[in-house]
Design a protein that fits this description.
Layout (H helix, E strand, L loop, with lengths): L1 H11 L20 H12 L9 E2 L3 H4 L10 H17 L11 E15 L2 E15 L4 E10 L17 E12 L3 E8 L2 E2 L16 E9 L3 E14 L2 H7 L3 E15 L4 E12 L14 H6 L8 E10 L5 E11 L14 E11 L7 E10 L14 E2 L2 E2 L8 E13 L2 E12 L31 E15 L2 E13 L8 E20 L1
Antiparallel strand pairs: 1-7, 2-3, 2-22, 3-4, 4-5, 5-6, 6-8, 8-9, 9-10, 10-11, 11-12, 12-13, 13-14, 14-15, 15-18, 16-17, 18-19, 19-20, 20-21, 21-22
């Protein structure tokens, strides 16, 4: 049925650029193909004015791509897609234009074929709308009817006849050259990574937030305060907090510095999650150090603090190196059993190279990620780094390491070929499970250590092949084949998995604009 809808839509409403009068403030969702293509261009032509590890970007920040000049067939392909999509959403608008623009659009993403050992068809159908009140003020709303969520055992929400619906984005944005203020629901993605980040990722649902950003040529500061989902408490925590549930909050601040024409970008981030009581004013302060405030408060007032430092470096155009070190908890002293707790840290390193040996349109990359057990986790149930059952950071949570090898080649005639090899070791630790403390049974003299990953380790490898035909910006089709093999699958001794999947992906979008 979904295939018929998409084909019919393409025939009845050809995906041509709309007649907008400026929608530059709306943000580029992380699932959109243009974000992936942007990083292909960024690898070859590092931007001299963008901080590219703090996402989502606004369409206005991508607008300079329209004027770039291609130097190869692959770059010509990328710029053609950029121009069509950017001119559709964000053409020029005069400062003096007083008219309000009402816009509507739709975006269909369909997957159909053999998935998870059975034939399936899964459709995500998004409807977006909004108002461009002026060049600097816009309202954006996206509703997603998504059949994929019903397959997720951790999904929180209503399932009606196999269909789920969420208000994915809903915000008002005030944006200017040096600062922006956003209020509402939108994605946050902080950090570099091919399909995941350690600090804040799009693995969880978009956040209800108040966010502001200050920008100069060489520095940027971003802050948000968000309300996470309410959680039911166990009897133990119900008694402590005098409530059967806990309201939860998360705030974060991120400072960035760019050197050498933005070829070197450094970032430092602090975040805190707390719950079970009214918001703490010092956690709402964008310019305060959370850890210092926490240690100066009584033990009854808690918060789970996480910090990270990041590096992104383009030594020459065509080579990218990046890394993140994230610290949840480290032990310095050894005065009692509590100090035997293993360090809860995570790190990621990676790199990419473009057009090696002059091969146009070829990108090669490698990435390694390691997240210690209990990272993102904590003793108070309301303070885990999760939102609606999903990790705020890496989608695999904690207690794992992973090698990711990836390659992409432009074949000409609007065709792309991608290959990904994903090698994982995953222990029994999970973010949502109770926080255990086995080290408390040992003395300082005895010491304590534990293997990594912990318990029964699942070892898996996944190879994914994807062929994409992208003739016009608003439409593409791809064929994906994936083979996955695992030992001790789902951390069960001796359980194996040997799975082959093959499915088709379709993407189509269109938008319409009206002056009011």
């Amino acid at each position: 049925m979904a295939f018929i809808l998409i084909v019919g839509a393409v025939l009845l409403f050809p995906p041509t650029p709309g007649k907008a009068q400026g929608l530059k403030g709306i943000t580029l969702p992380p699932y959109h193909w243009m974000q992936d293509y942007f990083f292909e261009w960024q690898l070859r032509h590092p931007s001299k004015d963008l901080f590219v590890t703090t996402l989502p970007l606004q369409f206005s920040q991508l607008q300079p791509l329209v004027t770039q000049k291609p130097t190869s067939p692959f770059e010509r392909f990328l710029l053609t897609q950029f121009r069509t999509d950017l001119e559709s959403f964000a053409p020029s608008r005069k400062e003096s234009d007083p008219e309000t623009i009402l816009y509507f659009g739709t975006r269909l993403v369909e997957r159909a074929g053999r998935m998870a050992d059975e034939m399936r068809s899964r459709l995500a159908w998004r409807f977006f709308s909004g108002l461009s009140l002026s060049k600097h003020v816009e309202i954006h709303n996206v509703v997603n009817l998504d059949q994929n969520l019903k397959d997720d055992p951790e999904y929180l929400g209503k399932i009606w006849r196999g269909l789920t619906a969420i208000n994915e984005q809903a915000y008002i944005l005030f944006h200017f050259n040096t600062f922006s203020i956003k209020f509402g629901r939108d994605y946050i993605r902080w950090g570099r990574g091919i399909d995941a980040t350690l600090t804040v990722s799009d693995a969880s649902r978009p956040f209800d937030q108040l966010q502001f950003q200050l920008r100069t040529e060489k520095a940027q500061f971003t802050y948000f305060a968000s309300k996470l989902n309410t959680v039911s408490l166990s009897p133990q925590w119900q008694e402590k907090l005098k409530s059967p549930w806990a309201e939860r909050y998360m705030t974060g601040g991120r400072g960035e510095l760019a050197l050498f024409d933005h070829r070197l970008q450094l970032a430092a981030t602090q975040m805190v999650v707390w719950g079970g009581r009214d918001p703490e004013w010092y956690f709402l302060n964008p310019f305060i150090f959370y850890y210092g405030e926490l240690v100066n408060e009584p033990d009854s007032l808690r918060g789970n603090i996480l910090g990270s430092v990041e590096l992104l470096y383009y030594p020459v155009p065509g080579i990218e190196v990046y890394g993140t070190l994230m610290i949840d908890d480290i032990q310095v002293e050894k005065t009692g059993p509590g100090d035997l707790e293993p360090n809860e840290i995570a790190w990621m390193v990676g790199g990419r190279v473009a057009d090696p040996l002059g091969t146009d349109g070829l990108s090669l990359g490698i990435e390694y990620t390691r997240v210690a057990n209990r990272t993102y986790n904590t003793i108070p149930e309301a303070e885990k780094f999760v939102h609606r059952n999903k990790p705020v950071g890496h989608f695999l949570g904690n207690d794992f390491d992973r090698w990711l090898l990836h390659a992409r080649k432009y074949l000409g005639r609007h065709m792309l070929l991608s290959l990904t090899v994903d090698l994982r070791r995953r222990g029994e630790g999970r973010v949502n499970q109770p926080f255990d403390q086995p080290w408390m049974n040992y003395t300082v003299e005895e010491g304590y250590s534990e293997p990594f990953p912990s318990g029964i380790v699942e070892r898996s490898r996944m190879i994914t092949f994807d062929w994409r035909w992208h003739p016009r910006a608003p439409f593409f089709a791809s064929l994906t084949a994936r083979w996955q093999k695992a030992k001790n699958y789902q951390n069960v001794e001796g359980k194996t998995l040997n799975r082959f999947e093959v499915f088709i992906n379709l993407w189509w979008e269109a938008q319409w604009f009206f002056k009011i």
